[in-house]
Structure formats: C-alpha cells, structure tokens
Amino acid sequence: MSTNIVLPRIMHIGKGAAMKVVEVMNVLKVHAPLIVTDNMMVKLGYAEQVQQVLRQSGIESMIYSETVPEPTVSSIQAGVDLVRSSHFDSIIALGGGSPIDSAKAISIVGKFGGQVRDYRFPKNVADSGLPIIAIPTTAGTGSEVTRVTVITDDQNDEKMLCMGLGFMPMAALIDYELTLSLPPRVTADCGLDALTHAIEAYVSQKANPFTDAQALSAIELIGSNLRYAFDEPHNEAARAAMMLGATLAGIAFSNASVALVHGMSRPIGAFFHVPHGLSNAMLLPVITEYSIPAANDRYADCARAMGVALLSDDNSVACQKLLTELRLLNTHLNVPSPSSYGIEKDKFFDLLPTMAQQALDSGSPLNNPKVPTIEEMIELYRKVWMEGER
C-alpha cells in the first residue's frame, strides 16, 4: 500500500538558511510579503533583519506582530483583515509555532473568508491560501513542515485542529542560529514538544516506513541533545541537532499524525493556558505507560533510539527504561506538575469530562496504539494530577 507524503516545496536547513528568503521568493515568484511574527521577534531584531534583507533587493514588506502564544481566533483577526484589505501575495512566518500557526490561519481565512472554525477538523483544507515562507525560531513545533494548525476558539476555550494540504508552507528556512537566544524554559518546552511529536508519530496507527525513519532519527537527535541545549544555551552543536530533530519530528507527525498525548494536551492548554510543549510533557510519562501494552515493540525502539536501552534488552526492559528516562528528563528540565504550575484542582477535576470529550473530538486519540474511552481518558487525567502531587 502506498503512502501519501506532503512536504514544503523548498527547504533550506542549516546556518544562514534564514537569509535565503529573497532567493526563495524569487523561485515562488512573489514580491509583496506580509511578515507575521510576534513582539519578541521584533524586540530581538529578527523581524528587522528579515526586512533589511528584503529591502536590499527592493522588496517592501509590512510586519504584523500581534500574534500571541497559543493563538486564538481574536488574535489573528487583524492579520486576516490586513490580507483582505491589502495586496499581499505571500506571508513570511517568523517565530515559534504560534506565529507560524497564526500565519497559516491568516493565509487561509484571509484568502477564502469565513472564520477559522469553518476550517476545523474533520474538514480537509486542500486549497492553498497565500504562499507561506516559514522561518522557525524555536526547535519544537515543527510547524514549518506540517499541514496542521491549532487555533483556540475564544468563545468556548476549545483548541481547534485544522488540517490539510492548504496549511503546508511553500518553503521552510530552518536556521538553528535563531534559537541561540532562547531561554532555558522555552528550550525545554519546545524540545519536549518535538520529542512527543516523534514518539507519537512512531507509535501512531498511521505510521509508515517513511515516517518511521524520520521519527527515529528525531528521537535520537533530541534524546541526545536536549539536556545540552537546556544546560548550555550557546552550544551550537546541540542547537543544530535540536533544530534538525524538531524538523524531522514535524515531518514525521505531519505524515503519520499525533496520538493520545496531543489529544489530551490541547484541552489543558486551552482551559489553563499551559504552553503546548509543557502540557505534552506533563502527560507523556503517564500516557506512554498506558499505551505500552499495545505497542511494546515500538516503544522499545524509541528507548533504543534515545540511547537509554541496549539492543540486547528485551522489549519489556527497554520500555521500563523509556518510562524512567521520560520522568528523569522532566525532572532535569524542571517540568512542573499541573498542581505546581498553579492549576486549581477543583476546576481541573470539574472539567475532566469536557476535556476528555474535546480530546476525543480532535481525532488524535484514535491514532493511539490503544484507543481509550472517554472514561479512560478521565482516569488518565486523574492519574497525571495524582502523580504530580506525590
């Protein structure tokens, strides 16, 4: 059986890749870009650097920097209005997953109209909006190589998953130098997000030989370098490995889908404003433990790729080593529990049925090796909370 693989049309990977933006625009035959970014990228001067490169080639651009972490329908509206009222023919998405996800939504809604909720899963968005050139500045989301965006509906605090070829950037410029200024907390959260992408892509029921290769390579790169990138922010070798690993993980999950961790993570982020990578990390050990019996050979491969299990270890031993490593990694990277993060216990428990239903509705849990019921997801949320209180 064949597998459909979708990738950006153009990719530049490595030091200085971000400066290829004019070359890529020429290939795509576009000349009037809107730069979608956030205020931090403006403060750090990255947005101005891109504009200067464009100006040197006679290309004028406008910056839209009002995107927010965990983007919402409201936060992208001004960008949508800009696209509808102006003559932009492309978008340069500069930043972490939030600006890139925002750019994807602005591209589609700005061109075709309506609201983001009109494009939510299970709708398959096949038509392309404005061409996107994605320049990631974090090693985590992989959004630069995925046909997915996640936007929160302000009206009900639900994270809406939107999918389809139309959301895939035309080009990705993957330059690890842009990650050297990341603080440790962002490095950790983004790295754990990428690790979760890779593991879930590998164990997904939609996994295939192509995505297996990307996922295992990503697990190896991230597992070997995340601690170094966290402890030594200016370690260029670790940063380069993390950037490549995050991109490979993005390719893997975009073509194999994520699973239960992501499905259960999104409602935590929406209701309690927990950064996406952090909510993934809170869930990953417990969900992995739940899922192992249905795919112990696959999880054992993950342990071996991370370097925590030997080829000679049988699968059960390797899986136990994986669980130990995931918990040790969370400890090393100072991942808080839901309670220590400041989530109110009563509210968390009151929302469990709603969160479980939203997780199921996202479709991601259906890709898990072991597909849970609503009741099982409620118990898993409870277990995550109780483990955090020990």
Short note summarizing the structure:
The chain is α/β, with parallel strands linked by helices and 390 residues long. It has helices at 21-28, 39-43, 46-56, 73-85, 97-112, 184-203, 209-231, 236-256, 260-272, 276-291, 296-306, 315-332, 338-341, 345-350, 352-361, 374-388, and strands at residues 10-13, 33-36, 62-64, 90-95, 132-136, 148-153, 158-163, 171-174.
Helix content: 40-55%
Terminal Cα span: 47 Å
- Compute the number of strand runs: 8
Structural class: alpha/beta
Give the low-pLDDT segments.
none
Using the alpha-carbon principal axes, give the shape. Answer: globular
Largest sheet features: 6 strands, parallel
The radius of gyration is 20 Å
Strand order of the largest sheet: 1-8-5-4-2-3
Strand content: 5-15%
Q: Overall pLDDT, averaged?
A: 94
Helices and strands, in order, run as EHEHHEHEHEEEEHHHHHHHHHHH
Number of DSSP helical runs: 16
Describe the protein in words.
With 390 residues, the chain is α/β, with parallel strands linked by helices. 54% of the residues lie in helices and 10% in strands. It is built from 16 helices and 8 strands. It has helices at residues 21-28, 39-43, 46-56, 73-85, 97-112, 184-203, 209-231, 236-256, 260-272, 276-291, 296-306, 315-332, 338-341, 345-350, 352-361, 374-388, and strands at 10-13, 33-36, 62-64, 90-95, 132-136, 148-153, 158-163, 171-174. It has a 6-stranded parallel sheet with strand order 1-8-5-4-2-3, with helices on both faces. Strand 4 (90-95), helix 5 and strand 5 form a beta-alpha-beta unit. Helix 6 (184-203) packs parallel to helix 10, helix 7 runs antiparallel to helix 8 and helix 9 (260-272) packs antiparallel against helix 10. It is globular, with a radius of gyration of 20 Å.
